[in-house]
Design a protein that fits this description.
Layout: E1 10-11, H1 24-36, E2 39-43, H2 50-60, E3 69-73, H3 83-90, H4 101-109, E4 114-119, H5 125-138, E5 142-148, E6 157-161, H6 183-195, H7 206-215, H8 220-227, H9 235-244, H10 246-250, H11 259-272, H12 276-285, E7 292-293, H13 294-300, H14 306-314, E8 318-321, E9 328-331, H15 333-341, H16 345-370, H17 375-384, H18 386-399, H19 401-410, H20 412-417, H21 421-434, H22 440-456, H23 459-476, H24 479-495, H25 499-514, H26 520-535, H27 539-556, H28 560-575, H29 579-596, H30 599-615, H31 619-636, H32 644-661, H33 663-674, H34 678-685, H35 705-715, H36 720-727, H37 731-745, H38 750-762
Parallel strand pairs: 1-3, 2-5, 2-6, 3-4, 4-5
Antiparallel strand pairs: 7-9, 8-9
Helix pairs in contact: 1-2, 3-4, 4-5, 6-8, 7-9, 8-11, 12-14, 12-15, 16-17, 16-18, 16-19, 18-19, 19-21, 19-22, 21-22, 22-23, 22-24, 23-24, 24-25, 24-26, 25-26, 26-27, 26-28, 27-28, 28-29, 28-30, 29-30, 30-31, 30-32, 31-32, 31-33, 31-34, 32-33, 35-37, 35-38, 36-37
This protein binds adenosine-5'-diphosphate (ADP) and magnesium ion.
């Protein structure tokens, strides 16, 4: 997205982890296609290099797309209904109202000039075609670069067939020393050296290398899989095993393997070279979606040792995602497919059941740990397992809907607390529909979904679910469900502007909670009742309730609900005529909500900061923040929940800012605010706003390897928190690295690092 400084960002594009070889003319041609067509699809067999090429082209095009170049990765999405979800998440639109995702996406893209890379469409081709058609229609500034084994069959589509890397012609003698003019050989050599540093191309082995690459058809993934084996096998053996083994099975006329079978043959070959234990792990690990950690592998896949996992990493079957101290592993998609095909159907069911049970148990532990000082860690971990949680929810829905209901309800803190209202709603709706019979799990899913729907401003749907839960709880004497549903009905009334009913329900809920264990919801009952008191003008009572809620949080190291208490204290300060105090509270709340990625919490804090700015007489700041909030609201739900009481200070703020600035100036500033990304808006609100007026792009400073890593992640557009997650170091450590990086560059903001990286890429 273009910030106020119209800096261009490349968001969500992964940094190259291995060198990029050849493809000069592909890059030029695809770039040309992208500038003339609105949908370009890179097609070709698995492993041919579609994704790498797309990313290469995209990275070079960021200048042409002021609103950025974004990657949506569909590899792990199984459910066609989640395509639009995934795309909007990738664009940073993390949540939505009850409205269809597609509508939200279309609206978001309407006025933006942006390149969307839609990677791995093949298994969802129809859903992708529908989505792209609708989006291209709605958003004239949108260009899509897709990768897929086959075309999407959309009328505007232009396709580019990605061929394997070029090779010496087997029919023609190759002039000596010419080998490295061929990208396939360059790739082989580079990957061979990475596995076996002493490997070199010599006049003696050149012909053998050429022969291996020819057998592999120049297919990059096959080359990588085979070259890595030089760690253990000398080149001659490698060739003879290649020709003897599975190639023999797949070879067609003239001793050649049909191209679409090359990769399969290379994979089969790689599989045969694994020990039986490694083969079993390879097959079993196919049950994971996205990445997994060792503990998950041990729980789900028959307890492999760390050495066994490391063996598959050495063979480039598992990709290790470089997180020192907390490694995760991932199977390449094509290898996963192969592994899955090696499982007996019964084994696959058993595995998926164990996978589901593992993630259900993990979610249950996370729910328990949520109300504790480990809360942020829980949020980060749950996010890392998002793809696996989806897979578990999917599997449960197909086979044992009761488990799906339980899992969807258990994750309430994730849906409601970490910016995932829309997705939470999807799973909860689905699970409730599949489990119509009353019971404790349905009771829980009802109050959770009622909670999520209320936050989206979908009040009547929420009300019906909460009433059903309350009736059930009363009938069966389920004290927990009774307390939660009463509390959430109170919230529903608060947002629906019936303050009398809301107060009574909150009071009742707090009484019921008194007999139960403390948790974040107990805090929220105090805090939400405090909001009711604010709207009723009883500021002292509001402050006292907040302090009570806050004290519970402090005693337990709870941060997330705690931040809402601080938010309400900001409201109280504002109404007491203390805008500076309000700003301080608002910022503290915002800082915490940012660490949880809690979009609702963030936009509420941005609003209160806008109101405080107007009250303090800084109208421009107020207008900018209102614009920023305005842009975020549709991703959360109805602006200010559609509530009259929440809306009143908002309207008051706008009136003040308009009066101070004049309509034209107000609207121009408001629009500037609308152009901010969430991250930039938050940075601005916290006074960390980027200042790009004096870029110094001259020298390239000496960075330590860690600083280099941090600088690259900054350039990708990651926040400190995201960098901390990615590198598994504390946010404080990241902050100090960032400081060093900025200092060494002589920069004052991270946006300058982005600009610098951009320039490096172009040069
Ligand atoms: N031009 C290239 N230079 C270096 N490595 C490449 C190149 N093209 C592909 N690869 C590598 O080959 C593997 C398969 O490429 P990928 O782009 O994922 O293929 P696809 O998307 O067509 O399945 C990846 O490990 C990738 O890094
Ligand atoms: Mg791909």
């Amino acid at each position: 997205m273009g910030g106020p400084d119209s800096l261009i960002r490349i968001r969500g594009l992964p940094a190259d982890t291995t060198s990029f070889v050849g493809r000069k003319s592909d890059v030029t041609e695809v770039r040309r296609l992208v500038s003339s067509a609105r949908l370009v699809t890179l097609t070709g067999v698995a492993g041919v290099g579609k994704t790498r090429l797309a990313l290469r082209v995209a990275a070079g095009l960021s200048r042409s797309f002021p609103d950025g170049v974004w990657l949506a990765e569909l590899e792990h999405v199984r459910d066609a209904a989640l395509v639009a979800h995934t795309v909007s998440e990738s664009l940073g639109i993390r949540d939505e109202t009850g409205r269809a995702r597609l509508t939200v996406l279309a609206e978001y893209l309407r006025d933006r000039k942006l390149l969307l890379v839609l990677d791995n469409c093949e298994h969802l081709a129809d859903a992708c075609a529908r989505l792209v058609t609708a989006l291209l229609d709605a958003a004239p500034g949108l260009t899509v670069l897709a990768t897929s084994r086959e075309r999407l069959r959309v009328p505007e589509e232009r396709d580019w067939q990605v061929a394997p890397l070029s090779l010496p012609d087997p029919e023609q003698p190759m002039p000596p020393g010419a080998a490295l003019q061929y990208p396939a050989l360059t790739l082989f050599l580079e990957r061979a050296r990475a596995a076996e540093p002493n490997f070199a191309l010599t006049p003696e082995n050149e012909a053998t290398v050429v022969r291996v690459c020819q057998l592999l058809d120049g297919l990059p993934l096959a080359i990588e899989l085979v070259a890595v084996r030089l760690r253990a096998l000398p080149l001659d053996h490698l060739l003879s095993r290649l020709t003897e083994d599975c190639w023999a099975l797949a070879v067609g006329p003239r001793g050649r393997v049909p191209r679409h079978q090359t990769l399969e043959a290379a994979i089969a070959w790689s599989f045969q070279l694994c020990s039986p234990e490694e083969q079993a792990l390879w097959a079993r690990a196919s049950v994971f979606a996205g990445s997994f950690d060792l503990a998950a592998a041990q729980a789900v896949c028959d307890g492999p040792t760390a050495e066994l996992v490391a063996g598959l990493v050495d063979k480039s079957v598992l990709i290790r995602e470089g997180l020192p101290g907390r490694p995760r592993f991932r199977l390449l998609n094509t290898l996963r497919q192969y592994g899955r095909d090696r499982l007996a159907p019964d084994d696959e069911d058993d595995l998926r059941r164990q996978h589901r049970d593992h993630y259900l148990a993990l979610a249950e532990r996370a729910e328990e740990r949520w109300f504790s000082a480990e809360q942020l860690e829980v949020a980060v971990q749950t996010r890392l397992e998002h793809a696996n949680l989806r897979a578990a929810l999917d599997f449960a829905h197909e086979t044992e809907p009761g488990a799906g209901l339980r899992l969807a309800g258990t994750l309430w803190f994730y849906w409601a607390g970490c910016g995932l209202l829309g997705e939470g709603r999807h799973w909860l709706d689905q699970a409730l529909a599949a489990n119509p019979d009353p019971g404790p799990d349905r009771g829980k899913a009802l109050w959770v979904n009622g909670y999520v729907a209320t936050l989206q401003g979908d009040l009547s749907a929420a009300h019906a679910m909460l009433e059903e839960c309350r009736d059930y709880a009363k009938e069966t004497g389920d004290e927990l469900a009774l307390a939660y549903s009463t509390h959430r009905l109170g919230c529903n009334q608060l947002v629906g502007d019936d303050l009398t009913k809301a107060t009574a329900l909150f009071e009742e809920a707090r009484n019921r909670y008194a007999g139960l264990a403390l948790d974040s919801n107990v805090m929220l009952a105090h805090i939400e009742e405090a909001i009711t008191a604010v709207f009723l003008g009883d500021l002292d009572r509001a402050a006292a309730l907040c302090e009570e809620g806050r004290a519970i949080g402090e005693a337990h190291g709870e941060q997330w609900a705690y931040a809402y208490a601080i938010y309400v204290l900001a409201l109280v300060a504002l109404l007491r005529g203390e805008p500076r105090q309000a700003t301080a509270h608002g910022r503290q709340a915002l800082r915490i909500k940012r660490t949880f990625n809690d979009l609702l919490g963030m936009v509420l804090a941005l609003e209160v900061l806008a109101w405080s700015a107007a009250a303090a007489g800084t109208a421009e700041r107020a207008a900018l923040l209102l614009g920023a909030a305005n842009q975020i609201w549709p991703s959360v739900g109805y602006p200010m929940f559609g509530s009259r009481y929440f809306g009143a200070p908002h309207r008051d703020c706008e009136r003040k800012a308009r009066r101070a600035l004049g309509d034209r100036e107000f609207e121009a500033t408001f629009r500037r605010g609308m152009g901010l990304t969430v991250e930039d808006a938050v940075a601005y609100a916290l006074g960390e706003s980027p200042n790009t007026s004096e870029l110094d792009l001259s020298g390239v400073p000496q960075l330590t390897p860690r600083e280099q890593q941090v600088a690259e992640l900054i350039a990708e557009g990651l926040s400190n928190r995201e960098i901390a997650t990615r590198l598994v170091i504390s946010q404080r450590t990241v902050e100090s690295h960032v400081e060093h990086v900025l200092h060494k560059f002589g920069f004052t903001s991270r946006a300058q690092v982005v600009a610098w990286a951009e320039r490096m890429q172009r040069d």
